[in-house]
Amino acid sequence: MLKSLLIKNYALIENIEVEFDKGLNIITGETGAGKSIIIGAMNLLLGERASSDIVRKGANKAIVEGIFDVSDNKKIKTLFEKYDLDYEPDLILRREISLKSTSRSFINDTPAQLSIIKEIGRLLVDLHGQHDHQTLLRTDFQLAMLDEFGNYQNSLDEFSTLRRDFNEKLSELRELKSKEQSLIEKKEFYSFQLEEIDKIAPEENEDEKLEEELNILENSEKLLTNTTNIYYQLYEADNSVFDSLVSVRNMLDDLARIDKSFSERNKQLEEILASVNDLADFFRDYKDKLDVEPERINFIRERLGELTLLKKKYGKTIDKILEYRNKIEEELNLAENFSDRISEMEKEIEEIRDRLAKVASGLSENRQKTALKIKKGVERELKNLGINDAEFEVKFNRVYATADDEHYVKIGDRKVKFGTTGIDEIEFFISTNIGEEPKPLAKVASGGEISRIMLALKSILAKNDKLPLLIFDEIDTGISGRIAQKVGKALKDLAAYHQIISITHLPQIAGLADTHFVVEKIKKDGRVISRLRKLSGEERIKEVAKLISGEEVTESSLKGARELMNF
User: Fold this and answer.
1) How many helices (H) and strands (E) in the chain?
2) Position 171 confidence tier, pLDDT thresholds 50, 70, 90
3) pTM of this structure
4) pLDDT at 132
5) Where along the chain do its domains lie?
6) Rounded-to-integer distance, Cα 281 and Cα 268, Å
7) CATH code for 1-130+467-535?
8) How many CB atoms lie within 10 A of CB 114?
9) Distance CA 18, CA 4 (A)
10) Pairing between β-strand 425-431 and β-strand 439-440 as defined by DSSP bridges
11) Within 10 A of 182 (CB to CB), how many other CB atoms are there?
């Protein structure tokens, strides 16, 4: 349930902090007082996008924060585990909108993605806005409500995944067929290019290795002269470095016999002698192996020339050449096995189509079972709402594919088109008078009837889903009098299962509140602001009386208010 709501610097609202109770929370107020602003703030809190226009003039940012008790909400716990969020029994959601149109979202004071806020919001609140009545007339919304009631989300997800795979494979097949003529035309050219590259057969990093070897070979004479001289001076000359160091070592030996402090230096000199010896061995071996090969130099130069030519034609590096070579080889293989590849892809598509048919058929069966439950539930709820002879039906329809359609599945011997959610098109039909055939809801229902049908649907869906909080913004559109009492009773009954927040202008509904709030416009510092105030017992009676008689409260309206409220 929603424990508290903070709205700061949002439109006409300077600062509202309100605590909600369990049961039926009613909000009333004059037209234009700011009731819709509060609903807008709730939508923002639940993940809707917003612009800087909602920031109150003179403020830098708007803030909406809600604290929800989620201690018994297992779905929230599962979602927190999914996103590795720190779970707390009191969930704090906060949105901040700045003048720069930047939005920040927080979950328990930790920055969070808006998509996660929205996902959490769907598990906490069902918000029915005052313009949502008309959405009930749309058949796509009717199907969504049917699916929301049914317990087959896994099948819907599976169908969605298969449909995505089907579309991807279909696109691949179309692309493949469109490439066929182009590949046929390029086949001879690709064959020539592949033959040219394979004839030279470049190897990875070959050019770098050859250039390094060529550099050595082209400087072999200088390398031979210098390494020979170095070896001679280190080891073979009459006064070679090695011989001079040996002479020094012998003198140091004599000194060490006189003074032991020279012993350590003797060890150092032995290490130097070993190093000089190693150096001499290296230069001797290097010069002995060095060989000037004019034939090898010519070969490398020619080979580098061939590689340079390939680079100019097929890529700046050997890696690029090899990458291009593999690409055209794949294209040639495809051209040579085109019909086989097309047949393979068509087979894959038909396999997915068969799986789609199976899932879609199962979905359709589940929907028809669900439709019967909804029929009984809606007729029962409508009777409680004053439509005694209502006959409610969910009509199913399928569209069969033409010869040009690709998005179809085979159901029996027929090809049935499928859409984003399966093969079913549904529409709500209703008859509100005995003896009349049910007709499409969009054609026969009045505004008041649509409101009650929506409430009936919300009621059975809510009891089925156990969603913690239901918010109704003027669900009472188009009704009054005796019917309003029945709608109020339905809301009151629903409040036994859920926390309800309902904005209303009807005294019959407001009088049933467990907790009553009023939205008011007041002047502060020369500006108009909206505030939300919780009413006490006497204040509640006066507010309900206002709804009966208008701004001027009379004794008769007070009496009527007390009767409605059982005071």
Assistant:
1) 18, 17
2) very high
3) 0.64
4) 63
5) 1-130+467-535, 206-314
6) 20
7) 3.40.50.300
8) 14
9) 6
10) antiparallel
11) 11
